[in-house]
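User: Design a sequence. Structure:
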């Protein structure tokens, strides 16, 4: 079998495998950063793993991040040094394992009080020191003159200087797809558009799950020794399902963060801007990304957990007005190419869990009385550390088969992650037929054949990022993408759903 055929995705084969396997070692619910990381780690250790994702891989928070691989400068201010150090290590691992999806990026932080360049410079030098040999570049204090020479788009009024430091950025959805492909290459079954509806229980303990293939409506039962709930902000919903009528206290709080995307003309720089103090006491970024600029983010507490969250009018106004205070040419609502929101899963401390978790971006792993292993919180940058903790937890609880020492791990630290490469594209037609800027017929066909894409939205939101970059352009090209999906044998392309959903990306 050629390399090309080997990695080709055939959904009917995947579904048939799901049905034919009598008992999986591990079933993972949720195909975001967390679940996919667990699937890769478990498959690398040789476990029989299935991962089920209700919608598309990275449909949830994992395609809606600010796209930063970072230690978290603000955790530094909170004194959480071990958290920062771990994340800086993970930043280096991702840069090494997924070099075509991630890159170092310099940030400039302007200062408006005379002492700030010195104070910020000290803090950020310490941040650089924490990275140790993984430092990506020297932190430098900038005079007012140096800052304005480098970034003439920044208003000079009241400016005292600033600091330049280094972090990194990535393409979040692309990394998720790379993880799904890597897990699959290692023998895991990764299935998107397959929703988990309920649990099979014996003696009050979960032993399996019932799900639905959302493409066909066909139900399916899956038995597993251990079930990991990695459903992001929906973790509590599944916990309630498993707990039954007695219920279980919620563990998550949710906050929404929104971003807007504008053209590069407003920020024609290769550096990112970090605005250190918004009116609500947070930080705001302007980050160059795939030929556009992302502005964000906000932090809005939310009771609901919609699958397609929408930026609120006040969030968009807030971002524009805050950025407008610093830029010579402030963007207006009419300049927005796309606006999108994501939901942050924040873990609350639990008496049952010994009160060890803190409400922060830090993650928690625990087992409910139902036997469901749950993982939540954290951030994209630390997905690998989260996966390692989940596996350690399952091993400590004897939840995966005895007879082998699963701790003798081949570490994911040195596992290159796949993405589309030229070898695999060879033989797929349409390389020279562009259907939008940067999107060829071949790219769409590749997304179906090798990247699990099943819907117009999968292609335009997460294989190409056009919906996140320019919603009008994505809407214009959607019918052509639907035609190509048809040509690839997909009957229900979700074109109408995409046209309805994409309106929400136009402010
Ligand atoms: C606005 C914002 C900005 C951020 N910026 C950054 C950043 O710059 N850097 C960084 O490191 N981190 C960042 N983060 C954090 C990061 O995005 C999240 O921590 C991470 O994506 C969470 O991944 P997850 O897999 O836990 O959740 P999700 O990505 O939400 O995945 C959960 C998945 O479970 C699926 N699911 C739910 N119910 C079911 C079911 N019944 N059956 C099957 N599947 C189900 C969902 O469809 C979903 O795909 C940001 C987060 C937000 C919200």
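Assistant: Done.
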């Amino acid at each position: 079998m050629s390399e090309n055929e080997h990695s080709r995705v055939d959904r009917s084969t995947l579904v048939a495998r799901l049905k034919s396997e009598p008992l999986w070692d591990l079933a993972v619910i949720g195909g975001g950063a967390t679940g996919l990381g667990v699937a890769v780690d478990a498959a690398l250790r040789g476990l029989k793993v299935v991962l089920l994702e209700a919608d598309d891989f990275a449909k949830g928070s994992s395609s809606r991040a600010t796209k930063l691989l970072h230690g978290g400068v603000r955790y530094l201010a909170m004194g959480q040094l071990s958290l920062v150090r771990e994340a800086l290590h993970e930043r280096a691992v991702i840069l090494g394992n997924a070099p075509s999806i991630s890159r170092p990026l310099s940030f400039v932080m302007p200062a408006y009080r005379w002492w700030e360049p010195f104070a910020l410079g000290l803090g950020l030098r310490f941040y650089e020191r924490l990275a140790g040999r993984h430092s990506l570049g020297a932190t430098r204090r900038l005079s007012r003159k140096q800052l304005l020479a480098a970034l003439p788009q920044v208003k000079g009024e009241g400016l005292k200087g600033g600091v330049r430091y280094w972090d990194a950025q990535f393409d979040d959805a692309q990394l998720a797809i790379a993880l799904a492909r890597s897990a699959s290459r290692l023998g895991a079954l990764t299935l998107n558009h397959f929703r988990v509806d309920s649990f099979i229980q014996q003696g009050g303990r979960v032993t399996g799950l019932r799900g639905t293939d959302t493409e066909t409506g066909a139900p399916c039962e899956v038995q597993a020794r251990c079930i990991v709930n990695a459903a992001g902000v929906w973790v509590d919903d599944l916990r309630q399902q498993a707990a039954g009528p007695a219920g279980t206290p919620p563990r998550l709080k949710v906050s929404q963060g929104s971003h807007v995307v504008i053209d590069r003309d407003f920020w024609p720089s290769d550096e990112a801007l970090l605005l250190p103090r918004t009116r609500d006491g947070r930080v705001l970024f302007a980050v160059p990304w795939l030929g556009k600029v992302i502005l964000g983010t906000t932090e809005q507490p939310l009771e609901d957990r919609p699958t397609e969250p929408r930026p609120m009018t006040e969030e968009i106004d807030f971002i524009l007005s805050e950025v407008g205070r610093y830029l010579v040419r402030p963007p207006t609502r009419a300049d927005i190419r796309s606006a999108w929101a994501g939901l942050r899963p924040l873990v609350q401390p639990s008496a049952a869990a010994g009160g060890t978790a803190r409400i922060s971006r830090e993650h928690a792993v625990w087992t409910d009385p139902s036997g469901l292993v749950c993982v939540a919180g954290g951030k994209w940058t630390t997905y690998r550390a989260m996966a390692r903790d989940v596996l350690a937890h399952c091993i400590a609880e004897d939840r995966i088969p005895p007879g082998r020492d699963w701790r003798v791990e081949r570490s994911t630290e040195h596992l290159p992650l796949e993405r589309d490469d030229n070898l695999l594209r060879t033989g797929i037609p349409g390389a020279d037929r562009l259907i939008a800027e940067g999107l060829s017929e071949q790219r769409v066909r590749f997304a179906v054949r090798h990247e699990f894409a099943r819907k117009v939205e999968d292609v335009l939101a997460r294989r190409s990022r056009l919906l996140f970059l320019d919603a009008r352009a994505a809407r214009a090209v959607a019918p052509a993408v639907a035609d190509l999906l048809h040509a690839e044998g997909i009957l229900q392309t979700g074109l109408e759903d995409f046209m309805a959903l994409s309106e929400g990306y136009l402010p």
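The two ends are 48 Å apart (CA to CA). Residues 428-505 form one domain.
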